[in-house]
Amino acid sequence: VKRNPNETEFHQAVKEILDSLVPVVARHPKYRELGILERLVEPERLITFRVPWVDDQGIVRVNRGFRVQYNSSIGPYKGGLRFHPSVNASIIKFLGFEQTFKNSLTGQAIGGGKGGSDFDPKGKSDGETMRFTQSFMTELYKYIGPDTDVPAGDIGVGAREIGFMFGQYKRIRGGYEAGVLTGKGIGYGGSLGRTEATGYGCVYFVNEMLNSRGLSFDGSTVVVSGSGNVAIYAIQKANQLGAKVVACSDSNGYIYDPDGIRLDTVQRLKEVERKRISEYVKEHPDAVYTEGCHNIWSIPCDIALPCATQNEIDQESAKKLVAGGVQAVGEGANMPSTLEAIDVFLKANVLFGPAKAANAGGVAVSALEMSQNSMRYSWNFHEVDDKLHQIMKNIYREAVQAAAEYGHPGNLVVGANIAGFKKVADAMIAHGVI
Ligand code: NDP
């Protein structure tokens, strides 16, 4: 805390992991003796840079760009770029730290990284977004490459932004290094199934948890927060498995539709027209719009899928979910539950799928995109989706096994942290003190 003052999100992520690792370090003193924990809480590198650009009025704007190259012990740095006004070093470091363990859990050879900018994409024209992303890449290109560091999308960075960044990278570097970014369009090296991967993967993971208690999505009532990439495809897959999703949100408020949210309307409003979720009720008058997001968790449901942002479920919201009968929570977003909220869920015996396991499907398919780029070959949608499904089942199994092996049966927070940690820690030991 002294070395990283004011980095509250980073402290929160580190505390969650370190608490889980107590039984591992007790059983394997080598991790303490070789300074693994001290090394893990220090990123290999944090790069910050100026991003100047010119808006549509001809005014010069300046944002700050970040890339954390957190840990490369099991593969090239891999992790998304976030464009949101809240982005700062603490947010990027917490995300890079989490990403390191998540990527390890996928079973693929990818290290941990993350990046982004405090640029706010809301209300920007295509031209402004393009000029900003080109300026951002003009600095970032120095640090990335298909075998070094492979960024992808995250909040505020979708297919349009990845396209602009890929174009600028190609222009600066020459040649066609398709594997330098993932989340690309299908026509120029993207993978089928990548758009759906995080949302689908989260639902696959929760389905495994439900099955362990003889439950399923079929006939259940689900609340999803957010209405971005992760939320939309979590809703789609939950619907396909027979659930009724009754609510979703954006950063202004949430909609509740007791008949089940019409996903086609949400997709058109958010993906095509880039409008606010409040517009939904104009087309579906039986639905209700509420300003502010906090109360979405007071809607009674069987399954909650937080898919918007960090710390969106606090202790009070967790208590409301439990009072409303929630049986399973799957974190589609990164760190959406506070430490106190997780405690409420675990004490109430709610099935809880932590982010680094439940939302690992996105980066897993990003790694599949890298493989396809290297092979210059494309798998069809079903091949990618089958691989994703298998990966999510494996992550679930490994988390369950690690939790039981270290004395916390059924606690997937502990299980995912331990399973993700051991592979990274053992690789670090093999590489010596670096
Ligand atoms: P998008 O930008 O596509 O969507 C984000 C959604 O969350 C939007 O509905 C947005 O509302 C809402 N939101 C953002 N910030 C806030 C906030 N401060 N308060 C309330 N709502 C907010 O992002 P993604 O769907 O890609 O990402 C969502 C989460 O999932 C993030 O935590 C991300 O790190 C995580 N994640 C994403 C992966 C991916 O593959 N995309 C992979 C793994 C994790 P609005 O439109 O108003 O901004």
Automatic annotation (TrEMBL):
Gene Ontology molecular function: glutamate dehydrogenase (NADP+) activity
InterPro entries: Glu/Leu/Phe/Val/Trp_DH_C (IPR006096), Glu/Leu/Phe/Val/Trp_DH_dimer (IPR006097), Glu_DH (IPR014362), Glu_Leu_Phe_Val_DH (IPR050724), NAD_bind_Glu_DH (IPR033922)
CDD domains: NAD_bind_2_Glu_DH
Keywords: Oxidoreductase
Signal peptide start and end residues: none
Residue ranges occupied by any Glutamate/phenylalanine/leucine/valine/L-tryptophan dehydrogenase C-terminal domain in the UniProt entry: 191-432
Pfam families xref list: ELFV_dehydrog, ELFV_dehydrog_N
PANTHER family: NADP-SPECIFIC GLUTAMATE DEHYDROGENASE 1-RELATED (PTHR43571)
Name this protein carries in UniProt: Glutamate dehydrogenase
